[in-house]
Amino acid sequence: MTAIYIKDRLLSPKVVHKTPFEIVHNSKPSVKHMRVFGCQVYILTPKEKRLKWDPKARTGIFLGYEEASKAYRVYDIEAGQVVISRDVNFDESAFGLSPPITAEHADDIDFDSLDLDDEAPGQAQYKKTGKRKSRPHDEEVPAPPRTQCINGMD
């Protein structure tokens, strides 16, 4: 649903200089509320659910927007589950679990000394068949981990 929401606010190749949202609603869409996917967030723990010395917020990763309400879908790192909350503070300079990179730290990185290969270690060779690449013929592909169902949604 989030992908469609964003796509409706992008320029349409069919109509020059207009988005699908503009065509339907005759007004430009607002994108002020949109956030960077995968950025670090802090989920507020309500006063009723915390004790005196408990932290006021938990760290999480922004996953998207909730369909049925004006809330955010966030992966709560501490609880290990996806939660839906409106009380979220965003740190768009940090992604996932990595610390934020500032301009001072970016200048200190020496990219010439890094040993970067074009292929990742353990990357399987793919055989080409037609337009698509097939799975490696000599390796078993593990099944993806199952996620927990929250509020009856998958």
Describe the structure.
By secondary structure, the chain is α+β, with helices and mostly antiparallel strands. Among the domains are: 1-31, no CATH class; 35-97. The protein is built from 3 helices and 7 strands. A 5-stranded antiparallel beta sheet has the order 4-3-2-1-5, with no helix packed on it. Strands 6-7 form a two-stranded antiparallel sheet. Mean pLDDT is 74; it is low at 121-135. Residues 112-154 are annotated as: Disordered. InterPro entries: Retrotran_Ty1/copia-like (IPR039537), SH3_retrovirus (IPR057670). This is Retroviral polymerase SH3-like domain-containing protein. Residues 39-96 form the Retroviral polymerase SH3-like domain.
Element layout with pairings:
Elements: H1 2-7, H2 20-25, E1 39-44, E2 57-65, E3 72-76, E4 81-85, E5 88-95, H3 103-108, E6 128-129, E7 132-133
Antiparallel strand pairs: 1-2, 1-5, 2-3, 3-4, 6-7
Describe the strand arrangement of the main beta sheet, using strand numbers: 4-3-2-1-5
How many helical elements?
3
Q: Level of helix content?
A: 10-25%
First-to-last CA distance = 13 Å
Briefly, what is this?
By secondary structure, this protein is α+β, with helices and mostly antiparallel strands.
Protein traits:
154 residues; alpha+beta; 5-stranded antiparallel β-sheet; two-stranded antiparallel sheet; 24% strand
